[in-house]
């Protein structure tokens, strides 16, 4: 489903509610419940196995609709106790998009291989696409899969919660499971989307009117066999109009429909949710090469009319492709910004497009933009940030950023340029990388004012080089809490081998609750790939769980949750559940500990 589609017309609420009312009314009544407890609900995979699912999705209003149907084939290439990696592709694709401003083509999706990481809870943790995937095709596949995603508990539980994301944004789903004559029925309900501050600032709000999805889980096969769902969403727009969107989706397993997935290497795909630079050898789209500047500008702006703040990345990818197809127009496009033709809400995406384009022409335009007196300081800072991550690191770009960091009259431009130096140092190899890291070390050593020290620490965090571990560790002893907090989070960007000891020691010594929360964020980062909690650290965490500050307790719960596969950790979390007074934290604790363990701890 498209994210925040542009307004087509005001749809009467009563009429729209009726459009899905029949579906909800016709939802099958569950088979008589069998008097037995819910079994463990966890997905498992075997290396080399092949699965196929028939998938469909239809989203729209009474005036326009996006429809997708196809067969999803999955071939498991890696399998372990924590999940699987599958090579995947859609075949027999049928695609119609009259709701989306930038529709994908069937050929963009049909047969094109991608990768899916699936965890033990059946969650699609990451989707990986190669550089030959168009942005519109990625969006279709991502939205269809996230709409049908059902997250099981991973344990023998009859209710649980799961944080998820789909085309409308982030939400916390409520799940219930019941054993029936047909297997285990899992029901997902979406109460509301999390508040998006940027969307609210723009006057956009998405409200869930109705949402229900049902799945059949095969406990013997440890897999979800089918999913069906429907929802109604109210989109409130800045002009006061309201538009109701309806969405139906389904997925059913049919392994006999499996189609061979084209060979692809996982090393050649991008699992990052954010865009990266476009490869210089990627073919230029001839349609974009023929697109006039004014039309490209208007199409770029349409992403924001349709998607709001969610349009930043797709709009940037589109404009970057256009810049690659029309490098001689790079300066002319910047003139559109200088003349006021680019809306303020789209300007961050505008500079991201120049960064992603990665051409000589886009780099030259960014170099000019950082010293352009017509541009605002904010946009000059955006140009500096884009320049730091543009293409291959070079000494010329490093010199530009160094000059801005030390001499620019704008504090914003100076600070962002210093941060950009850190990013550039992290990407640069050889002599240039060594020189830039020496510059960062010198900046930190020479910094006296608190603001200068924080800026130097943040630049080092962007670099992420382990050789700064001791220097950052020394900053944990600074008198200013903000310096200690920034140093802790910068350490979290380094490898566990060099950062963990510093952070654990600070956790035991730190008294400021805000700094403790930063230390715990750093620990969660270094322990993200798996925790190495020792007995002493468990004891320390238990002591600090008595903190009167909810932010500290939450940080400890999330850190301990990295090791929730260990019985001693779950016992500690279960004991905290019965002491905890904050309902939100009790819910988080309940996501790590089974109901049986909670009863035993009580």
Topology:
Blueprint: H1 13-25, E1 50-60, E2 65-80, E3 83-97, H2 106-109, E4 114-119, E5 124-130, H3 135-148, E6 159-166, E7 169-180, E8 183-189, H4 197-201, E9 205-218, E10 223-236, E11 242-253, E12 269-270, H5 286-289, H6 293-307, H7 312-325, H8 330-338, H9 347-357, H10 360-369, H11 377-388, H12 395-407, H13 411-427, H14 430-446, H15 450-463, H16 469-475, H17 481-491, H18 496-509, H19 513-526, H20 535-544, H21 550-561, H22 567-579, H23 583-590, H24 595-601
Antiparallel strand pairs: 1-2, 1-11, 2-3, 3-4, 4-5, 5-12, 6-7, 7-8, 8-9, 9-10, 10-11
Helix pairs in contact: 6-7, 7-9, 9-10, 9-11, 10-11, 11-13, 12-13, 13-14, 13-15, 14-15, 15-17, 16-17, 17-19, 18-19, 19-21, 22-23, 22-24
Tell me what portion of residues adopts beta-strand conformation: 15-25%
What's the number of domains? 3
Helix content: 40-55%
C-alpha end-to-end distance: 44 Å
Unreliable runs: 1-35
Widest sheet, order of strands? 6-7-8-9-10-11-1-2-3-4-5-12
Named CATH architecture of the largest domain? Roll
Shape: globular
Q: Which CATH class of the largest domain is shown?
A: Mainly Beta
Q: Any idea what the radius of gyration is?
A: 26 Å
Q: Within the CATH hierarchy, at the fold level, what is the topology of the largest domain?
A: Lipovitellin-phosvitin complex, beta-sheet shell regions
Biggest sheet, open or closed, and with what strands and sense? 12 strands, antiparallel
Q: Which structural category fits the helices and strands? A: alpha+beta
How many DSSP H or I helices? 24
Mean pLDDT: 85
Count of extended strands: 12
């Amino acid at each position: 489903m498209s994210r925040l589609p542009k307004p087509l017309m005001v749809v009467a609420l009563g009429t729209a509610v009726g459009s899905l009312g029949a579906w909800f009314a016709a939802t099958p009544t569950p088979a008589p419940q069998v008097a037995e407890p819910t079994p463990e609900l966890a997905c498992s995979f075997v290396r080399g196995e092949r699965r196929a699912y028939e998938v469909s999705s239809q989203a729209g209003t009474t005036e326009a609709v996006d429809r997708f149907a196809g067969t999803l084939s999955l071939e498991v290439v890696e399998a372990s106790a924590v999940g699987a990696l599958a090579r995947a592709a859609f075949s027999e694709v049928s695609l119609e998009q009259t709701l989306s401003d930038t529709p994908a083509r069937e050929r963009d999706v049909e047969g094109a291989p991608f990768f899916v990481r699936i965890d033990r809870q059946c969650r699609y943790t990451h989707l990986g696409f190669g550089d030959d995937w168009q942005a519109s095709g990625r969006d279709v596949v991502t939205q269809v899969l996230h709409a049908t995603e059902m997250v099981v508990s991973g344990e023998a539980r009859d209710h649980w919660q799961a944080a998820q994301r789909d085309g409308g944004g982030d939400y916390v789903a409520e799940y219930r499971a019941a054993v029936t004559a047909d297997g285990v029925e899992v029901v997902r309900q979406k109460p509301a989307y999390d508040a998006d501050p940027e969307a609210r600032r723009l006057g956009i709000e998405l409200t869930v009117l109705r949402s229900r999805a049902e799945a059949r889980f095969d406990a013997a096969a440890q897999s979800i066999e089918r999913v069906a769902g429907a929802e109604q969403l109210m989109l409130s727009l800045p002009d006061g109009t309201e538009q109701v969107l309806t969405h139906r989706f389904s997925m059913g397993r049919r392994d006999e429909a499996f189609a061979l997935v084209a060979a692809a290497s996982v090393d050649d795909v991008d699992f990052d949710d954010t865009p990266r630079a476009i490869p210089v050898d990627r073919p230029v789209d001839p349609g974009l090469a023929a697109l006039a500047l004014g039309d490209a500008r208007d199409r770029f702006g349409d992403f924001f009319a349709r998607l709001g703040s969610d349009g930043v990345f797709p709009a940037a990818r589109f404009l970057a492709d256009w810049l690659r197809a029309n490098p001689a127009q790079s300066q002319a496009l910047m003139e559109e910004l200088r003349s006021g033709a680019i809306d303020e809400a789209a300007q961050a995406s505008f500079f991201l497009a120049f960064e992603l384009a990665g051409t000589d022409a886009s780099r030259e335009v960014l170099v000019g933009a950082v010293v352009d007196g017509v541009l605002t300081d904010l946009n000059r800072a955006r140009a500096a940030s884009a320049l730091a991550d543009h293409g291959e690191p070079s000494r010329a770009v490093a010199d530009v950023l160094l000059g801005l960091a030390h001499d620019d009259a704008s504090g914003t431009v100076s600070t962002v340029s210093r941060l950009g130096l850190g990013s550039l140092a992290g990407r640069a190899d050889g002599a240039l990388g060594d020189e830039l890291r020496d510059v960062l070390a010198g900046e930190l050593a020479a910094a006296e004012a608190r603001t200068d020290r924080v800026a130097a620490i943040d630049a080092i965090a962007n670099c992420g080089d382990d050789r700064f571990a001791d220097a950052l560790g020394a900053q944990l002893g600074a008198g200013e809490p903000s310096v200690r907090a920034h140093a802790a989070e910068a350490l979290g960007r380094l490898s566990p081998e060099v950062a963990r000891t510093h952070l654990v020691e600070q956790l035991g010594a730190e008294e400021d609750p805000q700094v403790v929360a930063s230390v715990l964020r750093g620990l969660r980062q270094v322990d993200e790939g798996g925790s190495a909690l020792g007995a002493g650290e468990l004891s320390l965490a238990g002591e600090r769980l008595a903190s009167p500050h909810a932010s500290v307790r939450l940080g400890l719960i999330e850190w301990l949750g990295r090791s929730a596969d260990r019985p001693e950790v779950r016992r500690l979390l279960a004991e905290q559940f019965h002491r905890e007074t904050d309902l939100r934290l009790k819910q988080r604790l309940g996501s790590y500990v089974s109901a049986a363990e909670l009863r035993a701890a009580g």
